[in-house]
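Entry:
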Amino acid sequence: METLSMQLKIFLPFQIFAEKIGVLRIVAETSAGSFGILPRRLDCVAALVPGILLFETEEDGEVYVAVDEGVLVKRGRDVLVSVRNAIGGDDLGLLHAAVDREFRNLDEQEQSVRLALAKMESVFIRRFVGTQHG
């Protein structure tokens, strides 16, 4: 009997991070918790949160990848994962630390940048409105 498997591609904004064939299972993290995919699972889409993506192949066994937020799409045997950043490694503890250090801190930095931009836009709008009425 033929072993069912999937093809996994992990995309970053400017490159392909990983391409694997013969993937037996995938576990990813969503805001609702861990999300498992087997080859016969129905097609689906899931929003990913920063965390650990696990996939298993007969050749490599279990492989762990720390991923930033993104999206996972399963269509037939193809599973496409698109994330802002990814880090591979063997030590699960180090990968969890990388998620906390690298990806969750980015969210705080982005919030600071968005707040600064909102303040700048507010000043610009007030000045613009002032020139219209003055």
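The mean pLDDT is 84.
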